[in-house]
Design a protein that fits this description.
- The chain has six helices and 21 strands.
- The chain has helices at residues 11-22, 56-69, 131-134, 150-159, 179-186, 288-309, and strands at 2-7, 27-30, 44-45, 54-55, 73-75, 79-83, 89-93, 96-105, 109-111, 127-128, 142-146, 165-169, 191-194, 198-203, 210-215, 218-223, 226-229, 233-235, 256-257, 263-265, 274-276.
- A hairpin with a 2-residue loop joins β15 and β16 (218-223).
- It folds into two domains: 2-110 and 233-309, FAD/NAD(P)-binding domain, CATH 3.50.50.60; 113-229, FAD/NAD(P)-binding domain (3-Layer(bba) Sandwich), CATH 3.50.50.
- α1 (11-22) packs parallel to α2 (56-69).
- It is elongated, with a radius of gyration of 21 Å.
- The protein is of the alpha/beta class and 312 residues long.
- The strands form six sheets. Strands 1, 2, 5, 6, 7, 8 and 21 form a seven-stranded mixed β-sheet that branches.
- Bound molecules: NADP nicotinamide-adenine-dinucleotide phosphate (NAP).
- Residues 47, 114, 146-152, 154, 171-172, 176, 230-233, 286-287 line the site of NADP nicotinamide-adenine-dinucleotide phosphate.
- NADP nicotinamide-adenine-dinucleotide phosphate binds next to α4.
- Belongs to the class-II pyridine nucleotide-disulfide oxidoreductase family.
- One of its GO terms (cellular component) is cytoplasm.
- GO terms for molecular function: thioredoxin-disulfide reductase (NADPH) activity.
Length: 312
Amino acid sequence: MYDVIILGSGPAGFTAAIYAQRFGYKTAVIAGRKWGGQLMLTTDVENYPGFAKIMGPELMQKMRDQVLGLGVEIIDKDFTKLDVNKRPFTVTAEDQSLETKTIIAATGADTRWLGVPNEEKLRGHGVSSCAPCDAFFFKGKSVAVVGGGDSAMEEAQVIAKFSPDVVLIHRRDRFRAQKAMVDKVKAMKNIRFLFNTRVVEMQGEEKLTGLVLESEGKRWVLPRDGVFVAIGLDPNTQKFSGLELDSHGYVKRYEEKEETGVMKYFTKTNIPGIFTAGDIHDNRYKQAVTAAAFGCMAALDVQKWLSENDPS
Ligand code: NAP
């Protein structure tokens, strides 16, 4: 019987594990076969305190090493099922079944796709969402990036090191991304911008050949060898039937305050004993450092909850 099982191995999950283990709890992380979360798909991280510049995968490896060093069990299998109706909870990770008093749901979020014709068919054949993984394949080729947030800026910078012709397509006339990141992209001579423009279709049979674009009621085809979709994220909540979600599909938190107004629980969900941390519930901040902080809060909430509900 575990005291706490953490589902997810991004900054939220690993930080929760560090705290839970140091509280003396029997702790396991179900990390998933592709452990580490979104930072595994990024390049330079320059806004995580303590590291002026570090590669995303290196930062996650350091967190994982720290967690393992503390003696936490990390299970590199995909979490497949959770029965929320019965306590202690039973968590299934592929062929393994585990019992636990509490859960921290920290499975993060994944790429949002445009949902336009041929996008799904051409994924891996010119359509990608991960520049650090795939930019190399577009050396010397023409590429587009779709989106106006930090991810789009980051993707564009990576791709522009390989492609001589990058077009950044954004649906509005203003970027959502941080100014510092936009400035870096603007400084790159091989990136041009298309504002107020939407991708309405992708073209190609075996591989991508072009994008059908629409702006101010006009449609045209932009020939492209590759497109990187960077339009945000969708939370990974599919395997949590019974957990209440908000109107955007993120796990809903049930903050609880003491009579004095002091926060009692920040990361509680609708199911007693299940807490949440990171991008799976966070539709607003979505940073590595905020995910880590939410992980810490979830572990502190577990500690409080166990002390009140399972003092053994
Ligand atoms: P985001 O901030 O939500 O931005 C998504 C962008 O895609 C927006 O510009 C949005 O347009 C556009 N978009 C959304 N749906 C679209 C659709 N169906 N068609 C066309 N465009 C669409 O997402 P993100 O850039 O992935 O970033 C997610 C979070 O991670 C953010 O909090 C970001 O700060 C963080 N992040 C941080 C870093 C870093 O600091 N190094 C790097 C990457 C990501 P509108 O602007 O019109 O809404």
